[in-house]
Request: fold
Amino acid sequence: MKTPQYLLSALLAVSALPSLAQSSTPAPEPDYTFTGNLGLFSDYRFRGISQTNKKPAIQGGFDFAHKSGFYLGNWNSNIDSAGYSGANIEMDFYGGWKTSWEGFGFDLGVLYYYYPGSGQGNAFKVDNTELYAGASWGPVSLKYSYAVSDFFGVPGTKGAYYVLLSGAHDFGNGFGVNASVGYQGGLKNGDPGYSSCVTEFDGHVSCSITDYKIGGTYTIDGWVLGLAYVSTNRDIRGWTDPSKNISNGTALLSVSKSF
Reply:
């Protein structure tokens, strides 16, 4: 029997209702996310100081985040073994809680720096544990880190601190800029035999350091291309090559991707 035209129209309208309802309903927030990142950098600068004797670094890690705000993560990089008692890898483990309220972001956590192989035999063991608290508003962020252990294993340096002010802006079409300034203090209490202060090329002994960074990024197909200028107010000798300045200004190139 031929279906009447008015009945056919009604059936088509009813069949379209589920898809319309489905398209207007937002997807539920996942309970958790698991992401990774990988990058190649022309130098690894930690608080303005080269950790790879001014050589390239491969870096990457993983992050787990729960919708409640709690998170865990791991990050890794190659390093100059001469500065870490034979260790050639840095492994960072961190966890914390973050939230946002009326445009403000808050972040509390703990970070442990681990160097596999450091301290074997009678060698100086290097590690560090820091608590951190961060706040952000729009593109501007402020973070305070406090060492609850001896700062990277140097006796008597518990309580060393680092303050970082940073900002970023997205221009759209894949272009962005970023800048930061940081201050490392609280290092003058190092024991005489293991002083955490550094002797500069002119013989000046410094127990604090200020670092600067300004750069830009371009994102294409998920790949982030970066170019930055990094420097400090100190001239620190290298571990592998004492004639090399590992804290002076340099251009930093990078390519990275999150997945």
About this structure: The longest strand covers residues 89-101. The CA atoms of residues 17 and 172 lie 37 Å apart. Residues 5-24 form the longest helix (20 residues).
